[in-house]
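sorry for the late reply, my laptop died twice this morning and i had to redo everyting from scratch. anyway the thing you sent over, i finally got around to it. pasting the sequence first so we're on the same page, its 609 residues, then the predicted structure underneath. double check i copied it right bc i was rushing
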Amino acid sequence: MPAASEPAARPTDPRPAPPADAATPEPAANAAPAGATPTGPAAPSRRVGPAGQRPPDTAPRPTGPDPADLGDLPSATNGNSPRSRKWRRGAVRATDIPTTTAPGATALPREPGRGHRRAATTASRPVGAAVRRPRADPRVGRRPVEPSADPELDGTDDPPEQPTHRRAALVALAAAATASAAALVAGLLSWSPEPADPPETARPLTAAEADRLAALRVTNQRDVRAGVRVTLGAGGGRTELVGWVDWARPLVYLDVGGPGAGAERGLVQGTASTLLVRPDPAATPTAAPPPLVPPDDRWRLRDLPAGRGLPAVRDLLLGLGTARVDPPRPEARWLRREIVDGVPVDVLQAALPALPDAGSAPDRRPRLWVDRDARLHRLAGWLPDGTPVTVELARSDRPTLRPVDALGGRPGLPRALSDAEADRLARLPARLRAAGGATLTVTAPSADLRGTGWLSWAGSTAYLSVVAAAEPGRRTLVRARPGSVARLVVPAGGAPSPPLPAPPGLVQAGGRPPGDDLERLVDAALRGAVTAVPATAAVRVRDDRVADRTVDVIEVRGRLRWWIDRSGVPRRLELRTGRGVWLQLDLAPGRVPALPGAERPVRKPAKRR
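ok and here's the structure:
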């Protein structure tokens, strides 16, 4: 091909122009004449005119491959036979492809464009005689762009485009899906439920809300019992109490725990006037529901200051029940609506008799979570000493509570005596005299003392030794007769039973009327062998068991209880004190030794025959 047919070098092209002998290769022996194609007349060479403009193309468009696509063919200069590569159809022109295999063939210059590989040498395989015109690409459904005069402008000399745009789209979609999943997981972890209703401005109560507030304590009384969880204080010094409250009895039964429980950790049972504790320093710090059947031992009466601690919690819980509707409270306010354990409630702010205002500020009034049936579910306020307190009520947790024996024992259904029970009560004095005596054991939680000794109904005398927990180094010897008591304090030691024979100081001591609850209890036991109890003054409380025997618990005038077995012999005697605690005197009928001050039976002289 003549040298004039080669395109002129661009002024801006930084690459050097190829030598003339490389740009005008010699025709091969088997090549077609220059300017002609194997299938038609000669076609003029494509040129670029001055200033890079393409002249009008009047000749038929060449159908051979473009020299730029020869970069897909492997080089033959390494001695290996060139392997066939996939050519882009219609992208090269047959007139521009050198077919010589001369040793002096050189590599075509690298053309600018996208994705070019290293340019192949001119020692290439001859191109076929005819290359068909490009067809529409079935993958994209459109016809390829016609090549322009300048390969740098239209990119016709680029190799086949790889499907990188699809891969990029897939990678972008995968990245977006991963980011969306991460955002979703993070949102779920940090999600918190929206309140049922947004906080609203406090307002006065409606008529229906005021009626529910007035009937709140009556509703508790009618429901009888509920489970409670009390939090006293806050932070590391808080005390937690878990258990139940019985408004009908009334009674509270709690397990005390929490980091601030201290010496009060253990079990608690309390009535409106009495508080019994069973300390257990080894118990777990976390409070848990106490056993339904409470332990029988180690219960002690505690005098704690009112208005704080356990007494304040006891008063608060028992004060939530009453038999009468409360008066209207015009200062009460409605705050908002909430959901507590799946139950919709109204949050009210109002003072209660059980928890009055802790100060004059309105924001110091207790808050009550009350449902539509006037049932209280939660309470938050302050004790009289300013300690914050929160009470949560479990309305469905309503087991029957069993008070300890010091608080009256298992509840029963008091009723009038049957004929058999009335007959056993009427015969009680004769049975006691026939039994002669009994070994006795005294338990007095109110004074935290214990005593052991003997009682003689035949000699109308009792003799026992009493040890108080507050004075472990000494003990008190008690000699009792009906209406008269003598005492003597001696050092502690030896057997728990009183010494025999009795010390002279006790024998010679003058008597005085019974003074404390223990003396009155022993005096009632002695008088039982003298005076019969009328059946009209007694009721049967329940049946029970003591000393492996079934007994009937018969209460006389609300203060004295005889535990009589089915044979008519008493097994226990209880006396109710002014503080609501029952003192116990357990009896084991049998022979007793000679007691100090006992009366000798008078024998009648035998008749002479």
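Residues 266 and 283 are 7 Å apart (CA to CA).
thats about all i looked at so far, will dig more tmrw
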